[in-house]
Amino acid sequence: MLIAENVHKWYGKFQVLRGVSLTVSPGEVVVIMGPSGSGKSTFIRTFNALEDYQQGRIIIDGTELSADLRNIDTIRQEVGMVFQQFNLFPHLTVLQNVTLAPTYVRKWSKAKAEEVALQLLERVGILEQAQKFPGQLSGGQQQRVAIARALAMQPKIMLFDEPTSALDPEMVREVLDVMRSLAESGMTMIVVTHEVGFAREVADRIILMDEGLLVESASPIEFFQHPKEERTRKFLSQIL
Amino acid sequence: MASFWRNTRFWRFAGQAISVVLIVAALGFLGNNLFGNLRQLGIQFGFNFLKSQAGFTIGDIPFAYKPSDSYNLALLVGLLNSLRVISVGIILATAIGVTAGIARLSDNWLLRKLAIVYVEGLRNAPLLLQLFFWYFAVFLGLPSPENAVSFGFISFSNRGIGLLGLQLSPEFSALLAGLTIYTGTFIAEIVRGGIQSVPRGQWEAARSLGLKPGLLMRLVIFPQALRAILPPLSNQYLNLAKNSSLAIAVGYPDLYAIASTTFNQTGRAVEVMILICATYLTICLVISLLMNVYNRSVQLVER
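^ inputs. structure came back:
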């Protein structure tokens, strides 16, 4: 589903990614953990070309991410993304946020786009807020709308970039529940998060990144109970 | 019971009342002074002179006006001429400004630099100078109508612009070109600032949904940028409206030009000045009002 090979990226002279490789199979849920500045957000942002990279290869669902604009367009339609700061469009209603891309990018009819949108809003538990504006919702509700908005494009992979880091503690749960049910439905997901509970229960695989390198890749049980690398043990001792 | 001079509600009211009294007193003093001086000089005050015959010809007329008509009609010609250049000017200046503002943020190096040269070159040259340039160097320098420079439906000659059978005088054309191109530079900067005020996350969210640059700008960025653009944009519209009174420099008979001829012929300085001020004030207030209504419609719903 997703193959990243030896990805390198520099910001000027500073190297953020120093040769990271990752293969994700269909239906797999991969959680990426690591200290801040480890390059984990930058890494997943290269998957839909929000960040470019200077060396390596990224292939998503058979399409190679290159300078070819058509490939970038194709990949962005197949990859959904959820941001730390939600980034809902504040001038549009919840329903309009969700129907915008299907209408203009997928060229669905208004009726079809709205039907799909309302189903998704029901799925994330926010149907009754469809006519409200993002500024009228709580953070947790906004993030659930953002998930529905990304799902409306019917992506093959969902990327989550610290989706609960900007939320008040009592709202983290409602967002994680939506993500958990999404994972159970078989969606391929790559999640950057600090939520240990979520990683332990939902992830098929956990990856630790540090200083632009992939340090360890293991199942949740191995990762938390028998980490192979010293760096992982040190990281775990700080967050647990 | 608390004493009233320690009550905030009392002072809020008292502040308003004192301001009103001071303003009325100042206006009364000025008015009294003016009419006193006029009486002393033996000058009458009144608008009856407007009904007498104007006696001068006007180059650009929107309806059949002749010199035997009254000053009233002559001033109406001026007003319509002003409104014509202001309304067309606002539309064109907005189109130029939005285009140049977006071009300044383009990924295309050449486009970006061209926009910078346009903005920095033309917003820093006096408008009066630019009007002279457009009139004397450009429009009067164009070939005669027989050899007009033609681009399909639009043609340029020393008789002005021909547009789909419509002939625009060189004076109108020069004024319109000067006003729109000058005001367009300021609008370009306002548009650029407005677009840059939209958070980066909005661009990223729109891109990650697969929206291409044109749609991204039209559906996501521009509607949000409008909130930052509209208040300073109103200022530019008002500036354009008032700057249109420089028409007199290229001989376009706008309100100010006609009013000033009227004043020369009748010597009615105070009345003519009041008329001009009241008319420009009305035009500007109407523009402000319309912009305020539009501005309210693009505000975000927050709660």
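Chain B has two domains: 1-45, 49-125+182-298. The first helix of chain B runs from residue 8 to 41.
thumbs up if we can close this ticket
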